[in-house]
Amino acid sequence: GAVIETAAEGRPPMTIRGGHTLKALDYKLPMASAQVKSCLLLAGLYAQGKTTVTEPAPTRDHTERMLRGFGYSLMGGDITLENQREVGGEPVADLRVRGARLKGIEIPEHLVPLAIDEFPVLFVAAACAEGRTVLRGAEELRVKESDRIQVMADGLLALGVKCEPTPDGIIIDG
């Protein structure tokens, strides 16, 4: 549903133009990649129909945990876990993601430590949600490898998303 343009041989820089309806897909990853899986799952939230991503081997489940931890059900997401099991001592599951309208929320502060590294993904989802998403109690994001709050705010602003960084979080208007 999106138009993607690249330089010669599929190399960066990339330009992605939306505006079209995303179509659901059943995708088998050719190699294990938590990052690619995350992109497809988040896009699946906005696709018409059911999106399925199958991995050849387990990868980090940070996005799945973040989606559950922040209750995508609170934001209106339609995500279910199927075939839950343990692999190498880690919980894994197959995810079913269906397109749904997301709504902004106030993120409960007690959940912040559980997903401190997943906030950039959540910020993108918040930008696509209807209404306001408020994050507080996440000052640690300002002193990681970079000031993640400011870096993400700068990126969202460059994309035309209304947002306001705060000393301990961010306010994003979807």
UniProtKB/TrEMBL annotation:
Pathway(s): Metabolic intermediate biosynthesis; chorismate biosynthesis; chorismate from D-erythrose 4-phosphate and phosphoenolpyruvate: step 6/7
Entries under SUPFAM superfamilies matching the protein: EPT/RTPC-like
Span of domain Enolpyruvate transferase: 1-74, 84-172
Reactions mediated catalytically: 3-phosphoshikimate + phosphoenolpyruvate = 5-O-(1-carboxyvinyl)-3-phosphoshikimate + phosphate
Family: Belongs to the EPSP synthase family.
Entry's Gene Ontology molecular function annotations: 3-phosphoshikimate 1-carboxyvinyltransferase activity
Origin species: Steinernema glaseri
Cross-referenced PANTHER family: AROM/DEHYDROQUINATE SYNTHASE, PENTAFUNCTIONAL AROM POLYPEPTIDE
Protein name stated in the entry: 3-phosphoshikimate 1-carboxyvinyltransferase
Single Gene Ontology BP annotation: chorismate biosynthetic process
Pfam family, one: EPSP_synthase
Keywords: Amino-acid biosynthesis, Aromatic amino acid biosynthesis, Transferase
EC assignment: 2.5.1.19
